[in-house]
Fold:
Amino acid sequence: MTLKTTALHSAHQRAGARLVDFAGWEMPLHYGSQLEEHRAVRESAGVFDVSHMRVVDIQGVGAKDFLRRLLANDVAKLKSEGRALYSCMLNEQGGVLDDLIVYLRGDESYRAVVNAATAEGDIAHMRALADPATVRIEVRAELALLAVQGPDAVSRTLPLLPGDLRVAGERRPFSAVWNDDWMVARTGYTGEDGFEIMLPAATAESLWEALLAAGVRPVGLGARDTLRLEAGMNLYGTDMDTTTTPLVSNLGWTVAWEPEDRAFIGREALERQRAEGVPEKLVGLVLEGRGVLRGGTRIETEAGNGVVTSGSFSPTLGVSIALARIPAASANATLTAHLRGKPHPVRVVKPVFVRHGKSQIG
Amino acid sequence: MTETRTNLKYSKSHEWVRQEEDGSLTVGITDHAQTLLGDLVFVEAPEPGSQVQAGEPCATVESVKAASDVYAPVSGEVVAVNEELTDSPERVNESPFEEGWLFRVQPTDPAGLDALLDADAYAELVASEE
Structure:
């Protein structure tokens, strides 16, 4: 199978990327050192090509009602243009089909950004549910998507944006501004300040080169993963999937239960699970000592076994951290991880490890 | 293109071996191996004084990506380990053939070295795996 490539493919090669298959796309894993790229985002600024994610516009008189049925969070909470909402998209069993960000662009106009691996299924699901007489679903495959993240991201990116979009620097987190072809959102996946920028693919390379010239470091998907894990954000496909509900994945806060008459897909299953009791929970773990927790590592608790859903070395903290799904009844502050056949103590923490470059684990 | 060195011997499992003047053998992982692993974050070397068996795992290198066993290229007694790597595992990435050495073995059978690959044969092996 031929791998898909983004508009920045040759720019990645020039920057020395080690390219790997990522959900059918040939994407940069790193440009020499994942650790250095990780640190650049925590200490200065880095840019990621995330054009493999899909931008989907949902428009029409029925768009709002459609999204209120499609998503577990409620787009009616979006009160002003440019505001963004994080939500899960569920199946009837309450399993997570994908997690996404949806932006309000106008009265009857929304934009969603979905994951690369799930994009095709997501779009088919949306099309099957939307009434074409009132909802238009348009896949914006001609747009590239760059994320610039880090404490210096705003100052280094603003001068490079089209003049009318520089107000993005004054917007609060989870807000976006746009003109015809560009959209600049104050969102991201690293726990740092920064932007996600949607722009015509033909323009992406010149912005990329300008960012590099301004001292922004190219960062691969390897560091993106360690950054998001430190930020305590779930990764679709490992920390949640169609077999887990938001309630067992630490995402109960993204489910809008009110108003009670909003019949979103998966609602009945979630209400049943809430009434019966949620069997598992997703917690943060810190490994005491040397070694690295990895996805699949068994975690022993006093209430039964759990498993690491995603784990890695934390470059900021210098120890291994993980998200793990464990029995909800487990209350111990220290559990046991079985690493390569040996037991190791792990400390249970709130699953936010690093925010704005600072340790959150005490 | 990864680097190989003509003064070293190599195992099929991507360790290199250098013969020292006192007859001991220094062991590390190759440039090719460190490139594949990515940034190392922990190195667990064998205990000094312990015996290692050719072809058996005796050390572990962990990168951000994965944990990998290091196999003893020859049998013998571990006479030194690179203590530097406890705090600076990145030396293996920066200097796999020099500062990033892992441990030193006094071989039980000096002929064990002959069973290993020379630089050309190792380069061929790497090319066939790429």
About this structure: Helices of chain B lie at 31-37, 84-87, 91-94, 119-129. Chain B has a mean pLDDT of 94. The domain at 9-111 of chain B is CATH 2.40.50.100 (OB fold (Dihydrolipoamide Acetyltransferase, E2P)).
